[in-house]
Design brief:
The structure holds three protein chains of three kinds. By secondary structure, chain A is of the alpha/beta class. Chain A has ten helices and nine strands. In chain A, a hairpin with a 5-residue loop joins strand 5 and strand 6. In chain A, helix 2 crosses helix 8 and helix 4 crosses helix 5. The chains are: A alpha/beta, B alpha/beta, C alpha/beta.
């Protein structure tokens, strides 16, 4: 069989979505960001909403998210993505607006913007990557860092009397009347990836139906920050993250 | 023509709205006007005052140190503004609640017992219009019909039924104001 | 002809915004400017022009909402007073960096810190020297009347979109709280989304098939890219300085002495000038209308023939530095300022002028 015979539309079993650009991602091998980007891109393509969608990128590892998805983007100041998304949504109510934020961006510096956007029930989707660490700045403590977990700014492990407790922000957001859908997913196994994709799609559908704010938390790994191999990271996440951040829907209205 | 007026009293006495009605009437007469309140927390029950300037010329400073006319409706306002009336100027006060009378002899002092009159009439809300009626009796700087037109324009339609009571209050103010010094 | 109305400066800002086709207002209450949002809420323009009015959870959120709206090419604004403007500085730097047009309004009060709610002009440095981080400039307009509060809303939007740069109306508690006569601008319809796309092809209104996707950002990690951005910004700023400087000169032609003052201070100087002229001293007033770009050339020109300048501000002396730079030692530049919400009387200004400048 020649190469030409193999590369033939009839044999095609998988194709990269056209919403993903050809830019080489800067994420570390094993990082969850790339998978989540791809899922969002696929859903946008499948729903046919490329020309309506506006993404808001955070500060953190995903600061360059706008290099990877072929849609209009705004890059926010640290933590302010939900404020930008609020205005975009209010001024362009027929567009589909989402934010993409990490744990520091969403649950530390941007807590106020997150809570109030959710409380107003802005018709936006919030995709929240929770890997319990600050990746881009070099592995410092996040609001979601587990008790005892070592980071650059809690080198002997997070101690509640010094640093407080890991925040379950999605549970908090589920309490707000403005949110319609709050779910916690992961992308470390094939089945989990499929479920996460369905959650992302549901969030976009809610935006279009103007049902309120949808929050999709993806419990993720940071093998560089955690100083583990990708495989070790996945096992560590299952063992340590999932008990505190259990997967599943927190709210579906 | 230029009139520089301070109206001062307690918050809730209608000091600011009295100034606004006066300024509006000035506007309707084609004058230049400014209305500058002392703003802030003192609005809530504390002292309130507003500087109103009516002029035929462009008005520069909207805040002043001395005034042609001071209308003082409580003791702190009397204490603060009596010394700041220009010599030969006018001081109008309501004696209700005052612990001392004005002492200056180089100005024209008038008393208007508007608080007593308003409660006697059972119409406390027209208190400031009684005072305004008195002020315009002493210095008819704007015509009463312009005041009524200004009031009509600044009040929402649903309150227009109150217009006759306000006009009457101004008439009473003109009657009861008296020169004391 | 439009009716002459009596209203506060803050109210005029709100009415003018609706009439100039503003698409969105995002703010947070703070004295002495809360009437801006209160008036907008009362007018409910979402029912008439479709303008969005939103009370944000903080000044920080409000300025970032402005960023979001401006990034779509929409005509958006916020207003605040000094402490709130400090909170907005982060967002303002980002707006300037991402070259987004918008209108900011600061109705200044006395500081530092929580300070006072009384009028002040002590945010001059914050407004014209950068306030936030990085090398950027804000087009800064200083109204001295309620009429200018209304007119400058239109002017600020025009300049902001012409240069893709934030524009600031720098007012104070006097102009904001004072009522004066005002003729509001005629109603201008809001631009349709198609018109916005045409005027602002860089906006993020959703990608179209005929263009690559748009990104609004101020990020450029590579030094050479960031320096190129800065060079472009600086070239734009020089162009604005060249083309957009505004000032009002009152009786400066024959003046021996000139007051330089902006906003409410310029009005106080107007009365002081009258007093001087009654006393046979030829005094004029130069009122910078744009604080950035600053009327440096006009002051340079005057410095060649007047005997001295008197700068009056409601601050400990901020704009006076720019006047001294322009005068460059040619003639004396004296200063009189009051701070913390105190306002000098015109008599006081004239007295100090005689002591410090004329009798010296």
């Amino acid at each position: 069989m020649t190469t030409k015979e193999i590369i033939n539309p009839a044999n095609l079993v998988y194709d990269k979505t056209s919403i993903l650009t050809d830019n080489v991602m800067h994420y570390c091998p094993g990082c969850s960001h790339g998978v989540v980007h791809k899922l969002i891109a696929e859903v946008i393509e499948e729903m046919g909403i490329q020309n309506k969608t506006v993404g808001v990128a955070p500060v953190g590892c995903a600061v360059f998210a706008y290099n990877y998805l072929n849609i209009d983007w705004q890059e926010a100041a640290h933590g302010r993505a939900p404020a930008l998304a609020t205005a975009i949504n209010r001024l362009l109510p027929e567009n589909v607006v989402f934010t993409y934020q990490g744990d520091g961006d969403l649950a530390a510096i941007g807590t106020a913007e997150t809570i109030h956007a959710c409380n107003r029930g802005e018709n936006i989707a919030i995709f929240f990557i929770n890997n319990a660490i600050y990746g881009m700045t070099g592995g410092q403590m996040a609001p979601t860092t587990l008790v005892g977990m070592k980071t650059a700014t809690c080198p002997t492990g997070r101690e509640p009397h010094l640093n407080g407790y890991p925040i379950r922000i999605s549970n908090l957001l589920a309490e707000l009347d403005g949110t319609c859908y709050v779910t916690r997913q992961s992308v470390h196994k094939l089945a989990a990836v499929r479920k996460a994709k369905r959650a992302i799609q549901k969030a976009f559908e809610n935006v279009i139906a103007k049902k309120g704010t949808s929050v999709v938390e993806i419990v993720s790994t940071c093998n560089s920050g955690w100083k583990m191999t990708p495989h070790q990271s996945n096992l560590w996440m299952e063992e340590n993250m999932f008990p505190l951040y259990p997967l599943g829907d927190l709210k579906d209205r | 023509m230029k009139k520089e007026i301070i109206i001062a009293g307690f918050g809730g006495q209608g000091v600011l709205s009295m100034g606004k009605i006066l300024a509006y009437a000035g506007l309707l007469e084609g004058k230049e006007v400014t209305w500058m309140p002392a703003y802030g927390p003192e609005q809530r029950g504390g002292t309130a005052n507003v500087t109103v300037i009516l002029s035929d010329q462009r008005i520069s400073a909207p805040m002043l140190q001395v005034y042609d006319i001071a209308v003082v409706l409580n003791q702190p306002s009397m204490d603060k503004f009596e010394p700041r009336v220009k010599p030969g100027g006018v001081l109008i006060y309501d004696s209700n609640g005052m612990t001392r009378k004005p002492t200056r002899t180089d100005i024209n002092v008038y008393c208007i017992d508007a608080t007593d009159k308003a409660s006697e009439m059972g119409a406390q809300k027209t208190f400031n219009m009684i005072v305004l009626g008195g002020l315009l009796k002493i210095d008819p700087m704007v015509a009463i019909d312009k005041v009524m037109l200004g009031l009509k324009k600044s009040l929402p339609e649903r309150h227009h039924k109150l217009l006759p009571a306000n006009e009457k209050a101004m008439g009473i103010g003109a009657e009861i104001i008296r020169k004391t010094a | 002809m439009e009716e002459v109305k009596l209203m506060k400066g803050n109210e005029a800002i709100a009415h003018a915004a609706i009439r100039y086709g503003c698409d969105g207002y995002f703010g947070y209450p703070i004295t002495p400017q809360s009437e801006v949002m209160e008036t907008l809420m009362d007018e409910a323009p979402w029912n008439t022009t479709g303008m969005v009015v939103l009370q944000a959870e903080s000044e920080v959120a409000a300025i970032n909402m402005v960023y979001g709206g401006a990034g779509c090419g929409k005509r958006v604004m916020t207003s605040s007073s000094s402490p709130g403007m400090s909170l907005k500085q982060e967002g303002i730097s980002y707006l300037a960096g991402a070259e987004l047009p918008c209108l900011l309004v600061n109705v200044m009060r006395g500081g530092p810190g929580l300070g006072t709610i009384q009028p002040s002009q002590a945010d001059y440095f914050q407004s014209v020297k950068g306030g936030g981080h990085g090398d950027y400039k804000l087009i800064t307009l200083a109204p001295s009347s309620v009429q200018e509060m209304a007119d400058f809303v239109g002017k600020a939007f025009e300049l902001a979109f012409k240069y893709r740069n934030p524009a600031l109306i720098l007012s104070d508690g006097i102009i904001g709280q004072m009522m004066e006569k005002v003729i509001l601008p005629p109603f201008q319809p809001r631009r349709t989304n198609e018109e916005v796309r045409k005027e602002c092809p860089w906006g993020t209104m959703g990608k179209t098939d005929d263009r690559t996707y748009n990104v609004i950002t101020s990020l450029a990690l590579e030094a050479d890219v960031m320096e190129a951005t800065n060079r472009r910004l600086q070239a734009k700023y020089r162009q604005i300085e060249e083309n957009e400087t505004l000032f009002e000169a009152i009786n400066c032609d024959d003046a021996d002495y000139v007051y330089v003052a902006f906003g409410s201070s310029a009005r106080l100087c107007g009365d002081a000038m009258e007093m001087a002229r009654r006393n046979g001293v030829k005094v004029g007033v130069l009122r910078p209308i744009t604080l950035w770009p600053f009327p440096t050339k006009e002051i340079e020109r005057l410095a060649k023939r007047v005997k001295g300048f008197m700068v009056v501000e409601l601050s400990a002396g901020q704009m006076v530095e720019d006047v001294r730079l322009a005068v460059n030692g040619c003639v004396p530049v004296e200063f009189h300022g009051r701070t913390g919400g105190s306002v000098p009387s015109s008599e006081e200004i004239w007295d100090v002028t005689q002591q410090k400048l004329i009798k010296k």
